[in-house]
Amino acid sequence: MSEADGGPGEGADEEDGKGAGGGPPDAPGGGTGRGGWAHRLALPRFEPTPLGLIAIGLAAMFATLLVIQAALGTFRPGGPADEPSAPPATGTPPEGTARILVVGDSIVQGSSGDFTWRYRLWRHLERSGVDADLVGPNDDMLDVNTGRPGDDRYADPDFDTDHAGVWGATTEEAAAALGEYVAEYDPHYLLFMAGANDFAEGSTPAWALEAVRDAVTTARVADGDVQIVLGQVTPVAGTGRDEELNDKARTFNEGLEELAAELSGPVPVTVARTAEGYDPESDNWDTTHPNARGELKIAAAFADALADPLRLGEPYRRPLPDVAVGPRQAPEVEVEDEGGGEVRLSWEPVPGATRYEVRQRRVRPDPDDEVALPAQVAGGDGETRTATVDRLLSGAEYEFTVRPYKGDDAGHGSDPARVEVDPDPPGAPDRLRISGADGDAPELVWEEAEGAGHYEVLRREMECRGPSPPPSPSEPSGSPDQDGSEEEPECDPVDDEGPGEGDGWSTAAIVDDGTSWPLPEVRDGGYEYAVRSHRDYVAGGYSGTVEYTG
């Protein structure tokens, strides 16, 4: 992959290692492009394990102690009422492998064809010399076209894909099994990012912040040494509720800073400022979910928070590299001539594509500019994608490309597929003749040729000799040559060859409608005529010839 692809080289590769670099049905951002925001998938019922039950019990006991402390005030055995505040807490990187649990909603999980911000963070940590082990119960994404989980078609699957993200989860739902996860996977770091679905469903920032508080409390009960990074909610665009939702997100993000400061102790809780500099118009592929640019910004924010104050790895280098968006895989297109001016294109779906655009260009004759066809092909659920293009000109060679889109983000287009359209020639006109008896105007008439769209009338001048010279005065009067009438010239064909073989033939007319043509008046001499069938750019056969001297 090139720099623009989000693959090796500069771009996301410089920071990520290998890569520089409508929403799903019943999911946020449904449809292709920018659509609904509040639809969520049903979440699986959580069945805690024995470890999870212990963690939940400890969390409840800890919460009770917090209530008692709030009621009685802080216990001080004596001394001055005010003491100097403690210095800000800093992290303690583990020796050896750093286990990282990433918990959240669809922005954590990702969907078909994504790199995901988890990938970009993992690559950055790898380049920073950190041996990172991402942990969690899941390793999949959502299938963007079927709305079902279990999709493993990452843009680059060569990274640690484990996580605890669930598409559609609220903060409360994302934290539901957190105690069990912390107890089971024993992470050194917990990265938590959720809240978008809370606001889509009408919840308040205060409610979401309380759910985050509960999540931190539960994690700390399960492991008091786990170091926590809370991600801000990123803005949305095109939901029809942008002002409301983004206002809630801003209030939540401001409260998140205060909450982190409140909960931080000997082991810090810090915030990844994922919303800073985030532009949903260019950083989301639909209303809500990050494209490659958005993934990079989210990963950089978490990397910065891990580096300072948690002292794991290095901050993400600025400015952030420019990365390509849209599906990374180009379709492989086959094209077949169907006859009658139609061709059929087919290709296998590529990961992450929610729709496809077909582009067309005439290569010869009379080359034209490439244009996008108005009809688009839906992403589909794994079946071969097809498109039929009609009203093409017979005998012309066309070039087609197919470009995949994820929402509004265009990906890599296919290599051009070329085809000559309907090249078989029409038949030859039959029974060429001259009509116009009984004083009617003379016409050239022929029978319709199978497959012809129009006809070419051809003619060439005949070789004519004038009438015999007048008699001399010595000739007796009343001879047969002196009856007072004008003699017709004597005309013969130039040769015995028709059009295509003989000399002197030229086009007299093009007949687009019908099978006749009015003959012009001939004053002197005569002409041979023939007719050839055509269909667009395909030339057919010739008729026989007829002679006309007027």
Automatic annotation (TrEMBL):
Biased composition range(s): Acidic residues: 483-500
Transmembrane regions listed in the UniProt entry: 51-72
UniProt entry keywords in alphabetical sequence: Carbohydrate metabolism, Glycosidase, Hydrolase, Membrane, Polysaccharide degradation, Transmembrane, Transmembrane helix
Biased composition (Basic and acidic residues): 405-421
Stored InterPro entries: Ester_Hydrolysis_Enzymes, FN3_dom, FN3_sf, Ig-like_fold, SGNH_hydro, SGNH_hydro_sf
Pfam family, one: fn3
Residue ranges with Gly residues bias: 1-10, 19-36
Region (Disordered): 1-36, 78-97, 322-346, 404-439, 463-523
Keyword Oxidoreductase included in the entry's annotation: no
Span of domain Fibronectin type-III: 327-424
PANTHER family assigned to the protein according to its UniProt record, in alphabetical order: CELLULOSE-BINDING PROTEIN, THIOESTERASE 1/PROTEASE 1/LYSOPHOSPHOLIPASE L1
Protein name according to UniProt: GDSL-type esterase/lipase family protein
Source species: Nocardiopsis endophytica
